[in-house]
Design brief:
Layout lengths: L4 H6 L6 E5 L2 E4 L5 H17 L4 H15 L7 H8 L3 H13 L11 H10 L3 H13 L4 H46 L9 H10 L1 H14 L13
Antiparallel strand pairs: 1-2
Helix pairs in contact: 2-3, 2-4, 3-5, 4-5, 5-6, 6-7, 6-8
Length: about 230
């Protein structure tokens, strides 16, 4: 049983690995399926039988699974069992590795630092900012987690307030439109007695309303499009 990272690196299949370090594994480009599957099995066995270096081995497994994309779909539970890990741990590792390439990881930070950031953010710029922030301030994992949670809570409150304001504005507008509609229904035949000049003046007065109705109609006729989930793996 070996715990030193360099000793573990020496046990990796050379044909499958381009670079290996404490925080991750860069696999050989265009790896064939059989070699890749052998690597995953080998890493799972190493994880189960090795004492120590658990974070490094988890990161390696995450990189291998992220490299395989959907090739290992449905088998994370099996892999987790072989490695002696919880399936959720491997799913999280795969997501973190997919979002933070090996070349973007900070050597001064731990794997758990990267997990805190990679699970909270998908945007590469946000991820780099938080990693650099954690390194510059020498934040512990707990301190980093606390700051991220506070940041996300502030974002959620801001979004909720903005949504509430939009809802209030919409409610107020619809209330006024409904009131106008009631008046129009009550006097729907009045315009028949207007002169052409009066009708022309009325059209100028209600032009903002007619433009609004046209915009609403155009919006209603637009096809519904589901937002694309960019974080799925």
């Amino acid at each position: 049983m070996r715990t030193d990272v360099q000793q573990l690196v020496a046990e990796l299949p050379g044909a499958a690995v381009a670079h290996a370090g404490r925080l991750g594994l860069a696999l050989t480009p265009q790896l064939d399926q059989e070699t890749w599957r052998h690597l995953v099995t080998h890493l799972a066995r190493l994880t189960r039988t090795t004492t120590g270096a658990r974070q490094t081995l988890t990161a390696w497994l995450g990189d291998a699974l992220a490299y395989g994309e959907n090739s290992y779909r449905g088998r994370i539970v099996t892999c987790a069992g072989e490695a002696g890990l919880e399936p959720g741990t491997l799913r999280n590792a795969k997501m973190v590795c997919a979002r933070i390439p090996v070349s973007c990881r900070h050597d001064a930070l731990s794997w758990t630092h990267h997990c805190e950031v990679g699970l909270a953010f998908a945007n590469p710029n946000e991820i780099e900012w938080w990693l650099a922030h954690a390194e510059a301030e020498k934040l512990s994992t707990a301190a980093l987690r606390k700051r991220i949670r506070a940041h996300l809570a502030r974002q959620q409150r801001s979004t909720s307030v903005a949504g509430a304001l939009r809802s209030v504005e919409t409610f107020q507008l619809m209330r006024e439109l409904r009131a106008a509609c009631r008046v129009v229904v009550q006097h729907r035949n009045l315009c028949r007695s207007w002169s052409p000049g009066t009708a022309s003046s009325a059209l100028e007065e209600i032009q903002p309303l007619t433009e609004f109705v046209d915009a609403v109609r155009a919006r209603a006729l637009q096809p519904s499009v589901r937002p694309v989930d960019l974080t799925s793996n």
